[in-house]
Inverse folding.
């Protein structure tokens, strides 16, 4: 298939082209309405064209949004700087974040708590395997490339490779209409557990380094217990809200006069769980996914019985508007100059390989022969914000005056995030659709 | 009806309670995602509760959103300042502005160019009558309250009362399901023409004052011609886009692979006309309304034939999410301390009376006996951003060192905007529904 060749060629070229992904933590600008409207016009246009181009090549639309985002985000290399204000704008950023929250909410709506429970054990194992393998592989890569560095540096680099970022995978599964397969549920469940484990690892690693620095006793156990208690509290709160609050909420809201009550109630639950997740240190999208999960058609039957659309149908147009903003912006934030240093590129290539190969350990956690275990391993590949947050914290931490994560290592992490993000859509689509072919052939 | 009594009572109390509406032009803050999510939770909750409360009282939901917005916006008077950051946040502001753009787009979608042409002559007359009467009444009020002031001050105050802000009226017509009646079309058409005339008046008045200040020759004719040319250009561009571009655009976009193409294409047309309108000095909502007007079901039949939802259905959920943000924020920006000065209150009360009575001249422009001419006059009452923009420009203009619009006069304009906004929903609903009763009785 020439389509796939072009994609792989493009990715290949991207890797060997000309140092920082994702917005720096500058205060950010705040554009006026006309500029925002122009920005939205450009972003939505680019999203649809990129999506169309990739679907023609039998790739998921999201890959096109990312690649076309990279193109417009790097036009400045050719002197066209009109896209630059959009990169730092806080409003565009919030719209993008709302976009990925709505995406995971939609994905949650299409999944039920019951179905997730069925894959619970497998998801837990997938999450554990998918954290242990990349951690030790990352440690090893760091030890080889920076033999003079402290052991804590290696531990930190290992930790940076652990957490899966589920946004891309969720979008691919949605693009190719595969949210209902068992593999998708395992991945989504594992991503939630992964996020909680990521928090714990960060606390442990930072605790170890602080202890090493201070030379004092390592009492980070309390931190870990607090994180565990918060994560457990969140899950219990979500389940309580699901079983006890939501049915009562819909009973009350069905009495509310006015239009759009069903959708607004659902959005309130989504935003509330997203903000709670964020407050306890989890990703907002984990909260949004949980919100979608606990909202069930049966609970709002009194609305649909009156002829209102289902929540899936009501949320979809909001996703159509906002979700592409997230992926195009993600592409826009890729600075191709990151790829300019050969030493860093080599380090990044090996780190990326460790990140990709490491997550294939996930497939070992899937014992069920009926399940496409490769798809699970591929779906767990993308690294995102969590990896960058780890690297950012490491860049601020220092041992004996040198930062734990050097500028070069940070760039390598950035490249690893870009490549794991771009590699997943075609690989996951190929794996899941090849699987279907096999099934129809049998 | 006790419901209406409560509303009128509330409005009465509001008038006689404790100096500035709508955000100052400070750079504005940019909140982080969790704060934005909390803000959206509060705003959406307040919107639905306010809407419910008002619908129970047989009032349009929008009045509840405004009043509950005023309540939370003034909680700071009781020491609760947690709402304050939301008032200046640029992201919330953009979301609100997108909300009213989507509202007018929806209203435009429910109306056709053909229907607007049928009321074109009447709308033009309504717009003209509705500008001339408030202008001279405002002049008179200013002359009575500020006899020592220059004639240019009176001209300026008169000009401030001219432009109708159609957002509130459009929302009330939508709330009560009356967008399809002839009165609604006359009001919407008049509001567009009104906006263009408002621009011209502003140019003329500022030109006259500049000339008076400089003592030079008054060559503002070119400015006026430029504005006329731009407005004409916009209308021609919109019609060209409607007749020529849109059918071709949909033909192309029907070939685009991916989901959400119909909605995205429509949003692109909406944002493009909104930004064009804004660029030439018109309100963005005029552009959004024009975009809705020129999009016609027949043009995108290839999408609906494949079983996709109509644009009305696709845009509605986005409106459900974003539109209440505009009206709650509008309420939040009302500072009840504005109402604390008795002299200003008296001036404001008479100015408001002039603003309301003045627009009733609109009903004289409706010659058709079948039409509820009072509803047209009532629908034209709300003043909004345009009046405040006029007052803001006047505050910066000076004649002989004193500002054309004094701080007191500015406060009075602010109060006039608040009251005309709050008075319209109940009055318009009463007028249009009483009318139906008359018709069913006939």
């Amino acid at each position: 298939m020439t389509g796939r060749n072009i994609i792989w060629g493009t990715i290949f070229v991207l890797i060997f082209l000309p140092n920082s992904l994702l917005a720096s933590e500058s205060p950010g600008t705040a554009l006026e309405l006309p500029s925002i409207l122009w920005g939205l016009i450009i972003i939505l246009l680019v999203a649809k064209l990129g999506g169309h181009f990739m679907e023609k090549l039998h790739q998921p639309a999201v890959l096109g949004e990312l690649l076309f985002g990279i193109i417009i985000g790097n036009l400045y290399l050719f002197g066209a700087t009109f896209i630059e204000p959009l990169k730092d704008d806080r409003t565009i950023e919030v719209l993008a974040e709302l976009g990925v929250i709505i995406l995971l909410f939609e994905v949650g709506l299409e999944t039920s708590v019951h179905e997730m429970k069925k894959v619970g054990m497998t998801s837990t194992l997938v999450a554990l395997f998918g954290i242990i393998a990349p951690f030790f592989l990352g440690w090893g890569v760091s030890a080889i490339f920076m033999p003079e560095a402290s052991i804590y540096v290696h531990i930190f680099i290992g930790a940076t490779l652990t957490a899966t970022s589920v946004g891309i995978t969720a979008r691919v599964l949605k693009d190719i209409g595969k949210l209902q397969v068992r593999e998708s549920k395992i991945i989504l469940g594992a991503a939630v557990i992964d996020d909680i484990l990521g928090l714990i690892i960060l606390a442990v690693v930072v605790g170890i380094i602080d202890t090493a620095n201070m030379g004092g006793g390592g009492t980070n156990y309390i931190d870990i217990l607090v994180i565990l208690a918060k994560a457990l509290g969140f899950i219990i709160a979500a389940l309580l809200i699901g079983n006890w609050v939501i049915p009562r909420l819909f009973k009350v809201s069905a009495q509310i006069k006015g239009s759009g009550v069903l959708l607004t109630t659902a959005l309130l639950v989504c935003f509330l769980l997203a903000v709670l997740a964020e407050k306890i240190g989890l990703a907002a999208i984990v909260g949004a996914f949980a919100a979608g999960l606990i909202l069930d058609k049966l609970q709002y039957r009194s609305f649909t019985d009156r002829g209102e659309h289902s929540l899936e149908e009501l949320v979809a147009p909001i996703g159509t508007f906002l979700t592409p903003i997230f992926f195009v912006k993600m592409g826009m934030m890729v600075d191709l100059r990151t790829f300019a240093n050969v030493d860093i590129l080599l380090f990044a290539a090996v780190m990326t390989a460790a990140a990709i190969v490491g997550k294939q350990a996930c497939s070992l956690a899937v014992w069920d022969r009926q399940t496409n275990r490769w798809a699970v391993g591929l779906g767990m590949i993308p690294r995102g914000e969590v990896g960058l947050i780890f690297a950012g914290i490491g860049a601020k931490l220092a041992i004996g005056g040198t930062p734990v994560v050097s500028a070069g290592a940070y760039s390598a992490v950035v490249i690893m995030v870009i490549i794991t993000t771009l590699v997943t859509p075609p690989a996951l689509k190929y794996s899941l659709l090849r699987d279907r072919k096999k099934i129809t052939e049998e």
